[in-house]
Amino acid sequence: MEHLIELKDVYKIYQMGEETVHALDGISLTVDQGEFVAIVGQSGSGKSTAMNIIGCLDVPTSGTYHLGGVDVSTMDDDQQAEIRNKMLGFIFQQYNLIPKLNVLENVELPLLYAGVSSGERRERAIQALERVGLAEKRKNLPSQLSGGQQQRVSIARALAGNPSVILADEPTGALDSRTGREVLSFLQKLNAEGDTVVLITHDNSIAVKAKRIVRLQDGRIIYDGDAHDPRAVVQPDVEESREAREVLNL
Amino acid sequence: MKMGQSFRLAIKSLMTSKVRALLTMLGIIIGVGAVIVIVSLGNGMQQYMNNQFEQIGVNMIQVGIYSYGGNRQVTPDDFYTLADKYPQYIDSVSPYLSATTIVRQGAQEYERTKVYGVSETMYNSEKGQTATGDKLEEGRFLSYVDVERNQNVCVIGSYLNEDMFGGQGLGQTLTVGGVPYTVIGTLAQKADSTEGSGDDQIYLPYELVEQLNAAAGGMGMNSYLVTSTSKETSSAAKGVIENMLFRIYGDSSSYLVMTSAEMMEMMDSMLGVLMTILVVIAAISLVVGGIGIMNIMLVSVTERTREIGIRKSLGAKGRDIRSQFIIEAGTTSAIGGVIGILFGILLANVFTAVVSVVMADAQGFAAIPNLSGILVSFGVSVGIGVLFGYLPANKAAKLNPIDALRYD
Ligand SMILES: Nc1ncnc2c1ncn2[C@@H]1O[C@H](COP(=O)(O)OP(=O)(O)O)[C@@H](O)[C@H]1O
Ligand SMILES: [Mg+2]
């Protein structure tokens, strides 16, 4: 069967004057429909670069990337925009809601760019807001909501376009631990309902909420497997490993 | 759909920072306002000139003679003969001299009074008016005998009649250049009956004016007023007059024959030049306004880099972002344009009011903005916004979504 996400031998190389930086150094990865994968690694390990490529915001220097069976690694900007619109739902650390638009207008945005008619747009946006329990806040501006609520609005926005993959980049980074947990359990719920979720984090205690962990180090995958395998959280950084073991009750 | 949102966003961002919006639009407001005022004034002047010409007649031909030496001068009789020969072209002929001299009545001096020397043919009794459109109020116009014998009689305008004689001027006496004249006719009011207006005038037999001018040391220009039978025959009439004058003087620089239509054209082209200069100034102000909009849009693009990144991550294409910012620029300048139009109309009305108070002579002058002028300036202001919005919009469209998302 065809994989939903398929990265083959992906390199991303930056030329910094004399120096070349291999942000991604030959990555191969597949994700299937219905999975919940956490991409984890220390700062500088290449997570954001991987996320940009998976999110069709960037193209690899070499290697191929198939999303839903389509080769997206050689697409131009507008084609990528269309793929993002149809296939991907982004959840960002900073929520990234547009402050001047109200909650409903924010959630409608992906549908606006998909060319959905205004009546249907409104209907689908309200449905998405109902899924995150914020339909009654639709006339509010983002600034009138708490951080957790804003993140839920951004989740609703990610869901509104009915994407194949939900990409969450450090979605709890700006939240306190309690609301962070709420957001995570929300992602788990979405996954349980059939959505494919790719979560990017530097935090092992968050990564273990996923079903599968892909660990990056220096642009390479050093672990790819069950999130509950102790090897998933073992790494050179002693301090972090100890924390992770505690979380896992090892 | 997307247009609607861009439009609402533009209005929103204008509303949230009103001072900035006003400053952005200022150039456009001034430019469009200036265009409206200029066009209105132009229309007003055109209208006014047309009315003036309408009053004095569209079939008038003025003849000026510049040659004084030579063995032969053209005489009124030459003109009368010509008029008899070409009745199909020429309706009337009269000498038309103006004198610079002082008019007195008792102790009163009238320095601004215009004194014209004419013959009895100046007045057309069938039409009941002179070639320049003066109608009689009381009495009669100069007669053949008055002109032939150089009688010291005159016909006076309504201002003089009122001011000198309290409206009872008929049969009274006034002096022109020290010589007493008896008033044989008074004219109906044609302007506003004030000093220096069209009502401040006197008609005398032309030879007396010639003598006055000679006594004053000036040669005085020898000139005639001819009327053609119609507007259409005026150029034919001009042709026969020029033929005659050329036969006499053998030199076309000795005289000038000008029809009303030509005078009007000349005035029109002078007005046109003036208008062009003013419109160019207004256009410069519009360009400055456009640059103002471009500047603010560039700032706005920078401020909203993250928003652009978000929109792109959600699937906005380059052209979606570009049209959003172009619509925003167009909306801003369109609103500026509307304010400018209102401002211009207001100013034009103020101008009309001021002119009617300050320049009594310009009765009936009204600066009227016309619909096409308003539509064109609105179109131009939107166009300027779109034109100058393009560069910032394009910059926004080309932003890399990754960098844009990271921006703060
Ligand atoms: N635009 C860029 N230009 C140059 N080097 C970059 C760029 N983006 C990332 N890198 C480098 O690539 C490596 C991986 O970065 P990144 O993917 O941001 O890691 P992470 O998100 O895991 O912290 C780092 O060494 C970083 O300095
Ligand atoms: Mg990162």
Could you characterize the architecture of this molecule?
The complex is a heterodimer of chains A (250) and B (408). In chain A, 36% of the residues lie in helices and 27% in strands. Chain A has 250 residues and is an alpha/beta fold. Chain A has a six-stranded mixed sheet, sandwiched between helices. Chain A has a four-stranded antiparallel sheet with strand order 2-1-4-5, covered by helices on one side. In chain A, helix 6 links the parallel strand 7 and strand 8 (196-201). The longest helix of chain A has 16 residues, at 177-192. Chain A is globular. Chain B is α+β, with helices and mostly antiparallel strands and 408 residues long. Chain B has two domains: 3-53 and 266-406, no CATH class; 68-250, no CATH class. Chain B has twelve helices and 15 strands. In chain B, strands 3, 4, 5, 6, 9, 10, 11, 12 and 13 form a nine-stranded mixed sheet that branches. The model of chain B has no long low-confidence stretch (mean pLDDT 87). Chains A and B meet through helix 2 and helix 3 of A and helix 1, helix 9, helix 10 and helix 12 of B. Bound molecules: adenosine-5'-diphosphate and magnesium ion.
Outline the secondary-structure elements.
The complex is a heterodimer of chains A (250) and B (408).
Chain A: E1 5-16, E2 19-31, E3 36-41, H1 47-54, E4 62-67, E5 70-71, H2 77-87, E6 88-91, H3 103-113, H4 118-131, H5 147-160, E7 165-169, H6 177-192, E8 196-201, H7 204-207, E9 212-217, E10 220-226, H8 238-248
Parallel strand pairs in A: 3-8, 3-9, 6-7, 7-8
Antiparallel strand pairs in A: 1-2, 1-4, 4-5, 9-10
Helix pairs in contact in A: 3-4, 3-5, 4-5, 5-6
Chain B: H1 2-16, H2 18-56, E1 60-65, H3 76-85, E2 90-95, E3 97-99, E4 103-105, E5 108-110, E6 114-118, E7 123-124, E8 129-130, E9 136-139, H4 144-148, E10 153-156, H5 158-165, E11 173-176, E12 179-187, E13 201-205, H6 206-215, E14 222-228, H7 234-249, E15 255-259, H8 260-303, H9 305-313, H10 318-358, H11 371-397, H12 401-406
Parallel strand pairs in B: 6-13, 10-12
Antiparallel strand pairs in B: 1-14, 1-15, 2-14, 3-6, 4-5, 4-11, 7-8, 9-12, 10-13, 11-12
Helix pairs in contact in B: 1-10, 2-8, 2-10, 2-11, 8-10, 8-11, 10-11
Bound molecules: adenosine-5'-diphosphate and magnesium ion.
